[in-house]
Every structure is written in structure tokens, then in C-alpha cells.
Amino acid sequence: MLKLSKLLLHSRNQLSQKRLFAEVANDYQWLHGMSTLAGLSAARQVFLPDGRSADKIFAPYSIYKGKAALSASPILPTFSKLESGDFRVDRRGVIFLTFWPAIGERKYDWDKRQTFALSATEIGSLISLGPKDSCEFFHDPSMLSSNAGQVRKSLSIKAHDNSGGYFISLNVVNNILKTNDRFVVPVTTAEFAVMRTAFNFALPHIMGWDQYTNQPPKRIDEK
Amino acid sequence: MLKLSKLLLHSRNQLSQKRLFAEVANDYQWLHGMSTLAGLSAARQVFLPDGRSADKIFAPYSIYKGKAALSASPILPTFSKLESGDFRVDRRGVIFLTFWPAIGERKYDWDKRQTFALSATEIGSLISLGPKDSCEFFHDPSMLSSNAGQVRKSLSIKAHDNSGGYFISLNVVNNILKTNDRFVVPVTTAEFAVMRTAFNFALPHIMGWDQYTNQPPKRIDEK
Amino acid sequence: MLKLSKLLLHSRNQLSQKRLFAEVANDYQWLHGMSTLAGLSAARQVFLPDGRSADKIFAPYSIYKGKAALSASPILPTFSKLESGDFRVDRRGVIFLTFWPAIGERKYDWDKRQTFALSATEIGSLISLGPKDSCEFFHDPSMLSSNAGQVRKSLSIKAHDNSGGYFISLNVVNNILKTNDRFVVPVTTAEFAVMRTAFNFALPHIMGWDQYTNQPPKRIDEK
Amino acid sequence: MLKLSKLLLHSRNQLSQKRLFAEVANDYQWLHGMSTLAGLSAARQVFLPDGRSADKIFAPYSIYKGKAALSASPILPTFSKLESGDFRVDRRGVIFLTFWPAIGERKYDWDKRQTFALSATEIGSLISLGPKDSCEFFHDPSMLSSNAGQVRKSLSIKAHDNSGGYFISLNVVNNILKTNDRFVVPVTTAEFAVMRTAFNFALPHIMGWDQYTNQPPKRIDEK
């Protein structure tokens, strides 16, 4: 039954899903404080070391609940080439959370989405939560710009009283638009276990440590 | 002694094993609601991005017990190419469980097998089970078709009273064929630890998250 | 100080280490019940799918203690190509443990080594041991041959009373050679944590599940 | 707020960061007891099996606190080619910790850094620490040289009384330079969880076990 309702929900939201895939890239540019045009050209400057452009992959882990939906995707770091020919992390990777509200039975409004990008240390906090623990993070997406302090985002993860799951809530106060959005998604123990495993898998990649270990083995010739 | 009996069992079941490898593909097609012919042609439409067809790999983790055997294999998601050139998950991956009954001492009947495909969240439930926990999942393989509700599958995982292992049971009620199949496989702590580690390893791949992290590193050139 | 003594021990055992690397392959052939000649030619039949022979890698995790040394290395499964062109696991992978005795202060005798090959389920048992748990495995390396029952190996892992570490012991009774070898290696919590992490890493590879996930992503073209 | 202060700190330390990237290689050479010249030429002898030199990657996990900063990076093992054509680990991998002191509000002095290279077993100790555990390691970087005993390094990891985090401290006593440096970095539960996940990820690579599992699958042709 549970399974059945989930499937129905899937088909009804197929349209908004497709829009989701298309627009995450835009959100990401916004997150990193790029204007639309600058963002586009910056995106075009993203090349693989050998000159090909990277394919984008869309495989979010999405959870649809009564009042809102929540989706998580990893975004890898970018590297700069140093004069020495070596590479260093330029922009750190994140796990990108997107919340969007329910606007009826199993209907969700993607246009009203809000996002939150978890840093490595925030992921560390999430994956080490005990069954009764809680944590909360605060971001200012306009930090270091003239709009600093105008938009305040807080993400809170709170243990359920008895089920072993968590409430994941995002609150966005935007003083420029005079808006205050709040999303609450109850996440079951099983769903949180998926997030924990997937985030644990993604964390070394987000930190760029997979680039150390992807190197071919170093060899020293025998004397 | 334990080891000895396991080996004997292996050789006696070699034949049914070979049939297992050959037929999993069929079951998988069936699972996804394809008729035999449609399934075959659909299978032929599965190509790698560069046009080669993928080799199939058979490396199930199998557990043979007194009344039934249980086998687990991961099945990866498929991706669709979007008009933008990007890829998104089309059909989600699963861990495919197969049960087949014992029909004598160390003889098993592969023709009487039943299957259950664990979703990412169901895998999350399984790998987060505490030593005294239980869980149960319900599937309708004909959901969304005219046969909806005619076949009901339930998978249950229940902690042993004292050993630290689990009973994994599959019950399939088929109202069309008027059949009711039940399999119970007692799984030791060690066997469950293998499943937990292997499922934990497979989960990010089943979700398609390995495709994010398999991308070559993105590079932004220094100014 | 501890560190210092470990380094000294390293240099003194350099010679036996080199012999270790060279002889593990022989032991492995023996383990799989091949005679020396058959073993050699079988080894030559091991090819990569594309015809090149695989490089052998020697990176054992070794622990040197007062009365014996213990070394662990993963050995991957081999695959057979089916008529369909698909691959299935032919010989399962193992983690290969080698014990060899101390014959003086920081001197060890590699010629007196004994081996034990942990199966996937035995690895599952080891990595799920609680701080006060123990387990024991029994192998007959001549099983299914005319020498069945003549050599009996037992590996035991027992929790220390108070330190959080384990005693890992191998006992080999050989009725043909009339020998009875016993090795005991006390393993600290830290060393056992390395084994747990490394075995956990190796387990999906030993099962062959990495071959599922190493496949290029499957693509279904958009209609 | 927390986030804001972290960002400011980042930009202020950008310069010292760049110097960090450039100088880790030098430290590493020193760590392995090479003189500057010998070290340079040894570094030039590091080739990939196919003759290309390896790109260096800089993606440290860095923690900036009131009195000092701490940074961690994995360094992979090097392999020697044996006469047989096989490869064995020559120099084991480590996780390289660098400490450098604060010299004002959010200003740090990279020139006063000290380093500590964690071995596989020391990493095992760190990742298995319980919430109230502590551990301490002692290194002599000049061991086996004429300066043995002149420099003594000790790294200590101690549980906080109540927060669930740890104090990570490095003490370096140099009898040649008559210096005694001490760094203490309080690490939160979240930061330690990142280290635990990243170290757990890196450990099999540091041991060289990824080279076993990176091999193409071995195939035995069907009879």
C-alpha cells in the first residue's frame, strides 16, 4: 500500500521532476554568487583536464512527504591547475539539498523550491548524529556581498521522539523579498540510513580525496 | 564439518546454479512488467553510451539452508540521455533477492523460485536494522496494470531470539494462479554482516551516485 | 619507543619479507588443490579479458608479535566466460592469512608458515565481532580429495579480557606429516580496526560485486 | 555567524594556504629522511608505470581554531617492480598531519608548522576511538640516522569532557635546535566524523589494497 502510493506520487510528479533536473544547475550557479550571465559563462569554463566538457548527471535521492519534498545530490569540487602543473581544490564540493512544497494531494510546486548546500563538516555532523541527537546549520547565501545578512537560511535536523527517524526542516527568511519559507520533511530511519550511506560514500569525493587515490600507483625502480 | 557440508552442497547444486545465472535476466524483465518478447527487445536496447553492449556479470551472494536458498545481486540503474546531452536516472537500481525451495537433502528446485527487488530505501531499512529489530516490505509486481492486486509479495526480516542473526522470509500470494509460496531462510550474524557490507557498498551505485563521482575532475583555469 | 622497535623489526625481517612476496602465489595454488605443475600451467591460463596477463601486487598487512607474525592479503575471484558472452564467478575470492613463527628476538621463519583462506562469510563473521565476541573456523584443505580429513586447520579469534583487542590463533594438525603447528598473534584494537576497515573494503571485491558496479552506465535512449 | 567567521578566516589565510600546497612535498621528503638534494632527485625518480610523472593533488582537510590550524592529506604508497614483473609496496602510505600556529586573530604562521605522518595502524587507532577514548603516538623522525633521539614528536588525541569532540595535540621537542613546539586543536564531533570517514576511505589506499582491487578481473576460459 505504502509502495503503491509512492508509485502514484512518482507518476504525478514526473513533470516537476523533469523540471528539477533542468534547474538544479541554475540553483548551483546562484548558490555560488554568480549572476545569471556570469554564471552561464563560468559554467562554460568548466572543462575536464583533457578539454572535453563534463556530462551532467542527475540522480537525486528524493523523499516525498505530506507537506514537502526533499532531494539530495552531491556536487564535486573544482580544481585549479597551479603553475607547477599540479592541481588543488578551488571550489569545495557540497551535498545540495532542495526542498519544495506540497500544494495538494501528492502535488508539489517546484517553482517554490529552496536550497541548502551542505559543506563537508556539515555532512560530518549529519552522518554522526545519534538516534536522539539534533543539529542546526546557518547559511547566508549573500555573505561577503552588499546583500550580506538579507537572506538567512537555517537547516535543522531533529530526532523524532520515538521512531528513530528525523525531522529535516529548512527555514529561509528573505528580507529583500519579505518572504519567510519553511519546509518540514519527516525522514524515516530507513530513508536516513540511505542518506547516511550515500553521504558517507560521497564525502571523500566532495573533499577531493578521491583525486589522491585515483592517481596511478607511483613506482620506484629497483636498484 | 560445517565447511565440508557446504562444499558438498555446492557441487550438488552446481547444475541449478548454472540455470540460476541464465534466468536471472528473464526474472528481471518480468519484474519490470515487460512481456517476454518486449523484454527481449528492450534488453537489446540497453547500450552503453559509446554503443557497445554491456557484459552481464553473475556474482550472486547465495545462502543455502535446510528449507530454501536465498541469493542476492545488485542491478544498476539505467540512464536516459536528455536533449541537453546530460544523463538522468531512468529506471532505478535494486538489489534483487531470489528464493528457491529445498526439495530434499541439499537439493533445491530453481523452477519454483520467487523474487523480490529491494529499492534504495528498503536497503536502507535492512542495513540499519539493530540486533533486535524487524522490518517488512510489501510489493505488488502488477501495480499500475490490469492485474493490480492479484499478486502480493511480502518480505520480512526478523531478528532471531538469541543468536544475533535474522529470519528472512518471502511470502507470495498469487490470486491468478491460486498459489501461495512461502520461503524462510535463517541467516547467521556472519551472513547478515556480508549482506550489510555488500548492500552498503552497492547502495550508492544503485542510486546512480557513482556516476557523479566517476566524472573526471572539473578544472577551472587560473587567471 | 614502540615505533622504534617496530622499525628495527622491519629491517631485520626484510629478507623473509621478500621471500614472503615470492611464495604467496605458490601457497595459493596449493590452497586450491593444484599440484605444482598443474598449478603453474593453471596460473598461466589466467588472463585478463583482453589477453594481457595480470600484474601481481604484493601489499600485505603484516603484524609482527613476540611468538609469531601474521599477514593478510586479498585474492580476487576469477571469472568464466559463458557461451552467452557473459561472465560469472568461477573461483571465489578470499582473504589469505599467513602465519609464521618467531625463532628468536625479532627473527621469524618463513619456511614454517601456515596459511588460512577466509571466505566471504568468514570475513563477515570477523568484521562483525563485538568487543567481547569470539569465533572459530575449521578448514580441510584436502577436502574432496583422497587425503580428506588428514589435515585439519582451525582459526580462532578471541577477545582479550580487557584491552579491546583479540588473539588470532591458527592450529594446523597434519596427520600425514605427523605435525601439529600452533600460532598465536595478539592483535591490538588499532590493528584489528585496520583489518576491519581493509576487510570491509575488500569484501565486495572478493565477492565479485565490484564487477557489477564497474560496468559503464546503461543507457536507454529517449523516445 | 559561525559560517561567516569561517569564510573570513578563509580569505585571510589564502596566502598561507597557497604556500601550504607548495611546501607539503618538501616536508614529505624530509619526513622520509632524505637530504634536500637527495630528496629532489628521489622525487624525480617517481614515475608512473607507463613513464609519465604523476600530477600532484592538493585537497587537504583543514581545521582552523583559536590557537592553531590542523590539516590532513593522504599520501599513497610507492611500489617497486620485482624481477618477476610484479609490484610490491616499497614505501608505505601515510596520512600526513600538519599543524601551524595562530599568530593573531585568524592569522596563522605557516613557517612555524610541524608535521606528523600517521601509519596505517595509527589510523586504525584513530578511527576506532570511542567517544571517551584517548590515544597517543610517538615518532622519532631521525630514527636509524646519527641524529636518532634528538627530535621527539608525540601526537595525542583526547576526548573532550562533554562535547563528544577531541583535542588533537602535537608536541615536538628538538634537542638540536633547542625548541619545544606544542599545538592544540580542539576538533568537534562533526569535524572528527569527517576525519573518520575520510581516513576510513583512504586507509585501504594507503595500505596499497586498492591496487589488488584495481586489477582487471581474472578470467579462466571455459573448457
From TrEMBL, chains A, B, C, D:
<comment type="similarity">
    <text>Belongs to the Whirly family.</text>
</comment>
<dbReference type="InterPro" id="IPR013742">
    <property type="entry name" value="Whirly"/>
</dbReference>
<protein>
    <submittedName>
        <fullName>Uncharacterized protein</fullName>
    </submittedName>
</protein>
<dbReference type="InterPro" id="IPR009044">
    <property type="entry name" value="ssDNA-bd_transcriptional_reg"/>
</dbReference>
<dbReference type="GO" id="GO:0006952">
    <property type="term" value="P:defense response"/>
</dbReference>
<keyword id="KW-0809">Transit peptide</keyword>
<dbReference type="GO" id="GO:0006355">
    <property type="term" value="P:regulation of DNA-templated transcription"/>
</dbReference>
<dbReference type="GO" id="GO:0003697">
    <property type="term" value="F:single-stranded DNA binding"/>
</dbReference>
<dbReference type="Pfam" id="PF08536">
    <property type="entry name" value="Whirly"/>
</dbReference>
